[in-house]
Amino acid sequence: MSSRIYPSLLTAAVLVASAGGLRITTAADAVKPGDTLTGKDALGDWTTDAPGVRRKLTIAELATPYDTPSAKNNPKVVKRPQGAWPKAPEGFEVTEFATGLNNPRVIARAPNGDLFVVESRANRVSVLRDADGDGKPELNQVFATGLARPFGIAFYPLGANPEYVYVGNTDSVVRFPYQNGDTKARGAAETIIKDIPSGNEQVGGGGHWTRDLEFSPDGKTLYVSVGSRSNVTDDDSEKRRAVILAFDPDGKNERIYASGIRNPVGLATHPKTGQLWTSVNERDGLGDNLVPDYITHVEPDGFYGWPWYYIGAHQDPRHEGKHLELKSKVIVPDVLLQSHSASLDLAFYNGEQFPEAYRNDAFASEHGSWNRSHRTGYKVIRVPMKEGKATGEYEDFLVGFVTHDGDVWGRPVGVAVAKDGALLVTDDASGTVWRVAYVGKK
Questions:
Q1: What pLDDT is attached to residue 200?
Q2: What's 235's DSSP letter?
Q3: Where are the domains of the chain?
């Protein structure tokens, strides 16, 4: 693997001689699979994305607050242009697994191989089943309706024969009785946690609304992610927010597992170490390159800085002088990502279809920026692991959702490993579940 520096990448475009004169080419043309972008080059934007390109960000690359204006650059979501298709590394094939879904977000595999997809805007969960293994579901069945902005989903008890499907609403956790193969809930929802801080403005909540779910390997603890209500406010409205909460499986015995995590959108457990990991949206308003989103293992009782500090002992200037006693306690995350990428769901690769080098690596969806003058995100990344620990790099795995004009036709959200080892990715902009399978290099 090579490691190169490209001093002109941040200018985004280069003039190249051709038979017809000069043409403009994006910075991505200068980047090759296997290259590792470091330093300021790693900060780049979508024009430097390409399958197999790696980035490694460190504390040394942290920008100075307000070194650029704080941009409001929401994406223009357009219909997928003719011929546009997600791009994966050589040897991988991308196909449509399912289309026509309504705001598909988290996707989770049941022990029997069925795929449960949360359609958040429709307030429902659906089941997709590929019975014949052809890479297309023969069954698409609504499992449960009447939910409240659902996001996270989990099966309990762990193992081959779960008895419940848990769903994380924005203001509660409910569960449905379940047996392998059920395509409709066999009973009404049972509310086991009823007072999670809400993401619903109509009931006095607001802010980050996603609530992901994950059980500990021993099945004794249910983790629930709760994002902040605000960007950087530290008043009473943030009580029990910007945290990962822990409960007994019946919803009792609430405690805070980790705190200071602005929006821990995705939760996943490393298949070998059993450690909890999270994918995090950091704060806005400090410029294009602050604050990096991140992916990290979660320390019990760990404090990650929000809202007073970020990425270790860096104090947010909007809270100058506050809580100096916490400065030395802020944990530096394992993997820093391009700022404002909006890192959402994550999953560890525990299948056998991909090459051996991918086993137990993490995959995370980057939904895409709005608080950055040059877009970042809109892709799925791979987070390499070595003996259960992140190397600090991350690699572009699935890209191509941004048009040449900078508009966006796809926004990845959920990631899951199918029974056959393919990687499934939900895209809430086009209402699609994409399937990425390894077919071998030609």
A1: 73
A2: S
A3: 1-61, 62-438
